[in-house]
Each structure stands twice: as structure tokens, then as C-alpha cells.
Amino acid sequence: MGNAEIVRLFEEFAVLLELTGANSFRVLANAKVARAAESLTVDLVDLARTDPKALSAIDGIGTSSAAKIVEFVTTGSVKDLEGLRAQVPPGLPALLGLPGVGPKSVRLLWQERGIVDLASLESALDGDRLQGLAGFGPKKIQNLRDGIEFLKTAVGRVRIDQALAVAEAAITHLRAAGVVSRIEPAGSLRRGRETIGDVDLVAVASDGPRAMQAFCTMPGAAKVLVTGPTKSSIRMQDGLQVDLRIVPDEAFGAALLYFTGSKEHNVLLRGRAQQRGLRLNEYGLFTDDGLDAPQDRHPPLASRTEAELYRALGLAWAEPELREMRPLDEVCGHAPLLTVDDIRAELHAHTTESDGAMPLLELVQRAKDRGFHTIAVTDHSRSSVQANGLSIERLLAQIDAVREAELRVGGIRVLAGSEVDILVDGRLDYPDEVLAKLDLVVASPHASLKQAPEVATARLVRAVRHPLVHILGHPTGRLVNGRPGLEPDMHAVIAAARESGVALEINAHPARLDLRDLHARMAIEACVPLAINGDVHGRDGFDVLRFGVQVARRAGAGPDQVINAWDAKRLHAWIASRRGG
Ligand SMILES: [Zn+2]
Ligand SMILES: [Zn+2]
Questions:
Q1: CA of 495 to the centre of ligand 1 (A)
Q2: What pTM was computed for the model?
Q3: Percentage helix, strand, coil, to 5, in the chain?
Q4: Torsions phi, psi for 551 (to 5 deg)
Q5: 56: left (phi over 0), alpha (psi -120 to 50) or beta
Q6: How far does the centroid of ligand 1 lie from the alpha carbon of residue 446, in Å?
Q7: CA 556 to centroid of ligand 1, rounded, Å
Q8: Which residues contact 379 (CB under 8 A, 6 or more apart)?
Q9: Ligand 2 midpoint to CA 535 (Å)
């Protein structure tokens, strides 16, 4: 405990007082203590323990504030603050994080419209329920919408693999406890976005209270944010929020559809329902009698499954990954998307020769066990010193080892390749006569990832135009939630790839997912083939393929567009064609 905690204590006091409508003098007094504590160099906690009287002598801290500090330091909490917290919905202060929104607005939203957190503000905006609220004109309402988007993307989003691990642990826990008969992740996790705000789970439970109890006490749960018969929210130790909604069995499809989103997709579906004199909500599809809550008066026309709901709207089912800002006729009944099972070849893998964990033979054996018809060995090139990149001599020796491994393991084609560095100016890290000896060349940028966009564009275009390159590996070098990487003109890179017949990689590692979904879609539209590679380093290296596949699915890719999904004959012919064969 230190001064920072004292600052937060009084900031919270000020916020909660303001939200509960306390007089402005008290609000200001607490804000003033927070500011005073912030600028002090003396240790207030220490002072509270050793010389409490001296506290109230500090400029800006009065007697009552000093007493609160002492109470906080000795008991760990302050009774007055607990009282205020009990009055204010726990999700309400988060609204203050919206740009341009102050306590007065938040209090108005709460008191006049029953808004208690960001989610309820969002649904009020969706339902046009802010109309007539003093000071909330069209411009302010638009600002709120933008602000919510900003909050969602700017803070607290975790990588999809991290969110998926939490979701799967929760599902396993609830199933093992025998309290749910059906359970599915919804939200952006189901849509396969690269980062996730919070995890949404939709379930059917025979015993609701027991299910909620099991959920709120699951391993790793740090705090129960809210719990009720149909919805509970918990915060995990790593900060991720998980929401569980329990819905009636007969409304499972409608709830899953509603909570999967995206918001834009749901708006389109509701509009289509409206055109047909129907009403779509989280309970099902109903005849529209002009009143709210049609589920209280009508049996649903459809509600059990998503497919049933789409059908009742005259549509084919839409893959969750496609339910983004796209017209319904583009996503409903889309041609079959790629699945993980379609992937039959890994074209980017490292061994212990560079920075991989598996020796060559083990890598080949595991690829064969996985059912792959082809594995390419692509260790790092000589400039990647930190990754123990191969000298020309070591690379040439590895080609012989690869030929031998193919014979020894049998039943799988083993390609001698390299993940060759794209140097800062777009040249490659080995001379052409060396590259020409390889079966497969993946060219990737690893260094100088902060180049100006036009320099990066020229660099990547030059590499793509190189006649010996097959695949442009992780084209931008970005790391999800880590570094932005190169920001080339992707249209130019894709155009060059199309011209020279190079494939663009979706690196499936969840920290990379590079190409990203939008760029993968651009590549598909330009008829540039995609490669989905695990960039295998460890023994679990193939397990990440699902994430790369999800990016490809979001881009609308089917097996035809992904070279790793081609049969051996077609893939090998394509690879050979890049060698004039
Ligand atoms: Zn790499
Ligand atoms: Zn690699």
C-alpha cells in the first residue's frame, strides 16, 4: 500500500459521491485530497501508522479525510466508501471512461433510463431509448456510440488464444459439474476475432442457481461482478471478464444468434424481420403486434436453432466468422469455408538447427502422424543470428539430411526449404544459386519493422518479385497487442504477388495472425493464393493452425484458396512451377 492507493481511494470517493448526487462541496473536497496525495513525497501510509495527527496538518487533507486514511491503512477499507459502492451499480463508473462523458451525464443515464453499465448503454443506444433525455441530442448520441467502440478496441482486449483457453476451461468446469446441458461461446470469440473484449457463454441449465454457483466459483475466478438467475459476470485473475447467460432450451438458438453478433449483423437480421412483419430478439422470431416483449404474448415462429431462425427469415445459415459488417446476401449461404481438417501440409517449420525445439526426424514424424502429405523444413537464414540462422554450409548439409529423413520416415514428402530473411532493402539473405537448390522458399521480414510505409512497400514488393520465392511469410511482422509491424501498401504487395504467382502467408501463431483478416480478404479478391502455416517451433506447433484457419474463414476462404489444403499433386505441381518445372 502506498500513496497511489490513497489517491485512488479519494478519486473513487469523488466519483461515487458525484454519481449519487452528493453536494459539490463534498465531491470537490475528496478530489482535492486525491490531488494533494498525488503530489506529496511523504509516505501517507507510513504517516497514518506512526503519526496520524500530522496527516490532518497537511495542506489539502482535513480532519475527516485524515480519519479515512487511517481507517483505510489499519482496516484495509473505509465504511463510508463501502456504503457508496453499495448504492452505485458496479459497472456505472466505467461509463466515465467514455470520451466527453462526465458524472452528470452518467447520473442522468442511470436515473432516467436505468443504464447501469456499458452493455446496458449499448442496448439503450441500439433500441433508441435515449431520445428525449435532456442534453442527449443526435451528436452526443453519436459520440457515445463512437466512445463505446473506442473503449472496446483501446483497452482490455486479449488475444484470441488467451480468451479461448478461459472459455474452454469454463465450459469444461461447468460440464464436469453436471450443471449445463448445452453451452457455447458466443460474441467475438465465436466470430474468431483476433482479440477479444470479454468472453460470452450461452448455456442451458437444468438447475440455474447451481450452474451460476459453479460458474462464480470456478478455478481462476477473482471476483464476481454481478450474479443473477439468468446472467452472471466474473473477472478472472488475469483481468478477463467472463459472462454466462442461462437461457431456456427452446430459445437457445435465438440467444446464441443474438449474443454472437456482430451488432451490425443483428441489425440487418432485425431489419429483415421487420420487413416481413416480424420481430427478432434474443427469445426468438415473433409476429410483430407493435408491442414490446412479444415473447410474453406469442409463441415463437422459430427459436430453437440458428438455422431455423435464418430459414424463417428466408436465409441460409451464416458462418459466425462472416457475421461482420457485410450484406446478408454475401454471408448467408456462403460457399463452404476452410476447416482445420482441410489443412494437409505444413510449409513453414523450424528444427533444432535454428530456433525450433524438435530435431528434423521428430518434426517429420509428427507431421506424418498429423496426417499431412507434405512438410517443409524452413529454418532461419544466416542474418537471423539470434535465432541461430543457418550459414550456407549448414543449409547445404541440411538439404542432404532432409532427403535422408524423407526416406527414413516414409509416406510423407519432406521439402528442403528456408525461411529466408527479407533484408532491409528487399534483397534476400542467401544468393540466388543457393536458393535455387531449395524446394521451397519462404521469405519473411524479421528486422527493421519500423520502416516508413513506402520503404516497407518497396521492400516487400521486391521480395515478392524475386523469381525463387514461393511464399511471403508473416508479411508485416506485426504482433497482436505487441507491435504494429510494417505498414506497407497492401494493395501494391498483393498486386505484385498476383503478378509473380507468390502465395501470401497467414501465420497462424495467435501472437502474429499476419496476414490479418482484411488483407487476406483482399488477397482472395485478387486471386492470390493463401498459405496457412503454423510456423512450427515446438511440439505443439501444429495446434495453432486453428487460429490461422479462423482468420482465413473471416476472410471468406475455402479450401481452394489455401495451398496447404490442396492435395499433394496440386501442391507439388505449384511448388515446382516456381522453379520452371
Ligand atoms: Zn519468421
Ligand atoms: Zn518461422
A1: 22
A2: 0.75
A3: 50, 15, 35
A4: -60, -45
A5: alpha
A6: 6
A7: 25
A8: 350, 351, 353, 354, 356, 389, 390, 395, 398, 418, 419
A9: 5
Ligand with minimal distance to 377 CA: 2
DSSP one-letter code for 276: T
SS (H, E, C) 211-248: HHHHHHCCCCEEEEEEECCCEEEEEECCCCEEEEEECC
Kindly report, residue by residue over 420-451, the tens digit of the pLDDT.
999 999 999 999 999 999 999 999 999 999 99
Q: Which ligand is nearest to the CA of 418?
A: 2
CATH code for the part of the protein at 340-577:
3.20.20.140
How many whole angstroms from 381 Cα to the centroid of ligand 1?
A: 10
Cα of 559 vs centre of ligand 2, distance in Å, is: 23
Report the CATH fold assignment for 256-331: Beta Polymerase; domain 3 (3.30.210)
Fold of 3-154: DNA polymerase; domain 1 (1.10.150)
Which ranges in the chain are annotated with CATH 3.30.210.10?
A: 256-331
CATH, domain range 158-246: 3.30.460.10
Q: How remote is the CA of residue 363 from the centroid of ligand 1, in Å? A: 17
Tell me which amino acid residue 278 is: L
Of the pLDDT bands very low, low, confident and very high (cuts 50, 70, 90), residue 235 is confident
The amino acid present at 545, given as its one-letter code, is L
User: How far, in Å, is the centroid of ligand 1 from the Cα of 430?
Assistant: 15
* β-bridge mates for residue 376, sequence order: 415
Listed in order, the ranges of the chain carrying CATH 1.10.150.110 are: 3-154
Residue pLDDT, tens place only, 115-144: 998 889 998 998 889 988 988 888 888 888
State in Å: Cα 538 to ligand 2 middle.
Answer: 11
Question: Residue 474 C-alpha to ligand 1 middle, in angstroms?
Answer: 7
